[in-house]
Design a protein that fits this description.
Blueprint lengths: L2 E4 L12 H16 L8 H12 L35 H17 L16 E7 L11 E7 L1 H10 L4 H9 L4 E2 L9 E3 L5 E6 L1 H20 L9 E9 L2 E9 L10 E5 L10 H4 L5 E2 L1 H6 L8 H20 L6 E8 H14 L25 H4 L15 E3 L8 E8 L7 H14 L10 H13 L4
Parallel strand pairs: 9-10
Antiparallel strand pairs: 1-2, 2-3, 3-7, 4-5, 5-6, 6-8, 7-8, 9-11, 11-13, 12-13
Helix pairs in contact: 3-5, 9-13
Main location: cytoplasm
GO molecular function: 1-phosphatidylinositol-4-phosphate 5-kinase activity; 1-phosphatidylinositol-5-phosphate 4-kinase activity; ATP binding
InterPro entries: PInositol-4-P-4/5-kinase_C_sf, PInositol-4-P-4/5-kinase_core, PInositol-4-P-5-kinase_N, PInositol-4/5-P-5/4-kinase
Length: about 450
């Protein structure tokens, strides 16, 4: 038995009956009509019927007597195949099911003319209880909650992401886990590498709620032109009475171009060097000290640098207003010549298309479904080329640069507010390292100034 219980805030649709269930139910209601055999009359029979109906005293003619001798085939509906949300982790299976159900439900709800304050507090909840369910696909019992569905739908629209593409990217195939991630919690990438799903804490859910209204207004004001994360949805998945909070964002790296090197930069070198264990990984995450040691520079044109600095200054002012600090610049670098050599080696070995070493992108464009969309299937892309509508964080290196590269730059970890805990951590580190040390836990204004100064120096 399947039982769906929904909170009052949900759309006005019957519990447990999404568009697919409603369609099949409507088909079932029509079956008696469609199973009725067609009545076929010859011209002389039609004339006889007309005369009989026009004569008041004439006996009525039974249509059974006028049936043709040949039999008419009955029409039968073939029920559509039910989607199976199969993943190795039950949390992922429920996430895929929940996203598909949520998007289907949202498609039945009119888009509001404007968002109201209540939309920033709203949520939808679904509880499924079915002890006979096939646990290879979904758990016997689970809950799925979506936070502020209308707000995030509006944000997806402003970021140029269609709901159906979003649904395909997350629910068509299971997201991929980042096995190299050292911190606690899930870090996932959608199968087409366009979305990132990050597990967050309940405190971060509260922080997200506290800035969501201002974040939405900021995205409206800057028309989506920002280095901030593109927040697309926030969910809670409950399996076996354990809650998992998930935040969905656009992937800052390309779905198509390999990211050969990556840095997480805070503008501080104190304790900001990748460990030996990190450096020996196939795709290590380097830090500020590594950036300086490698004499790494970003080679972009003067025009691109001005655009980046304008975005960064605007974004940092917003973060200061929100009392946010401890964020990082995520910098990914795609080496075009190296990618060409890798592709030639793969072609010469006769291997089929496979994922790159970092698992962040195939060598060719993905299936023309999901967020990459049909544009990639219609527009062939050469080495180092990208679709700016999909890879929105990508920037080409300038002509005449030492290497032909593509850079991916964006701000991450923007849900840390300067609260009592951070103030205490700042005081403790200041005592230990000295007041003038470049520690990361400083108040937002000081953090922003240091970050801005560092960012301006990464360019050649």
């Amino acid at each position: 038995m399947l039982l769906l219980v929904r909170a009052p805030q949900t759309a006005e649709s019957a519990p447990g009956r999404g568009p697919r269930a409603q369609l099949l139910g409507a088909q079932a209601d029509l079956c008696p009509l469609l199973h009725t055999q067609d009545q076929i009359l010859r011209p002389d029979q039609q004339e006889q019927r007309t005369r009989a109906m026009s004569s008041p005293g004439a006996p009525s003619i039974s249509f059974g007597a006028l049936k043709p001798k040949r039999k008419t085939k009955k029409k039968h509906f073939v029920q559509q195949k039910v989607e199976v949300f199969r993943a190795s982790d039950p949390v992922l299976s429920v996430l895929m099911w929940g996203v598909s159900h949520s998007i289907n439900d949202l498609s039945q709800v009119p888009v509001p003319v404007m968002l109201l304050p209540d939309d920033f507090k709203a949520s939808t909840k679904i509880k499924v209880i079915n002890h006979l369910f096939n646990k290879e696909n979904l758990p016997g019992q689970f809950k799925f909650k979506e936070y502020c569905p209308q707000v995030f739908r509006n944000l997806r629209e402003r970021f140029g992401i269609e709901d159906q593409d979003y649904q395909v990217s997350l629910a068509r195939s299971a997201p991929l886990k980042d096995e190299d991630r050292k911190s606690v919690g899930l870090m996932l990438t959608s199968y087409d590498h366009t979305l990132v799903i990050k597990e967050i804490s309940s405190e971060e859910v509260e922080e997200m709620h506290s800035i969501l209204s201002e974040y939405h207004q900021y995205i409206v004001t800057c028309h989506g032109s920002t280095l901030l994360p593109q927040f697309l949805a926030m969910y809670r998945v409950t399996v076996e009475s354990e809650d998992t909070y998930l935040l969905v964002m656009r992937n800052m790296f390309s779905h198509r171009l390999h990211t050969h090197r990556k840095y997480e930069l805070k503008g501080s070198v104190l304790s900001r060097e990748a460990s030996f264990k990190e450096k020996v990984k196939d795709f290590p995450g380097h830090k500020d000290a590594d950036f300086r040691k490698n004499v790494q520079k970003v080679h972009v044109s003067v025009e691109e640098k001005e655009k980046l600095m304008e975005k960064l200054n605007r974004d940092i002012e917003f973060l200061v207003r929100m009392r946010i600090m401890d964020y990082s610049l995520l910098l990914g670098i795609h080496d075009v010549e190296r990618a060409e050599r890798e592709e030639e080696d793969m072609d010469s070995s006769g291997d089929e298309e496979e994922e790159g070493e970092n698992g962040l992108g195939p060598l060719c464009s993905t299936s023309p479904e999901g967020i990459p969309g049909y544009m990639n299937s219609l527009k062939p892309l050469g080495p180092g080329e990208f679709d700016p509508y999909v890879d929105v964080y990508a920037i080409q290196s300038a002509e005449g640069a030492p290497r032909r590269e593509v850079y991916f730059m964006g701000l991450i970890d923007v849900l840390t507010q300067y609260d009592a805990k951070k103030k205490a951590a700042h005081a403790a580190r200041a005592v230990k390292q000295g007041a003038g040390a470049e520690i990361s836990t400083v108040h937002p204004e000081q953090y922003a100034k240091r970050f801005r100064d560092f960012f301006s120096k990464i360019f050649a």
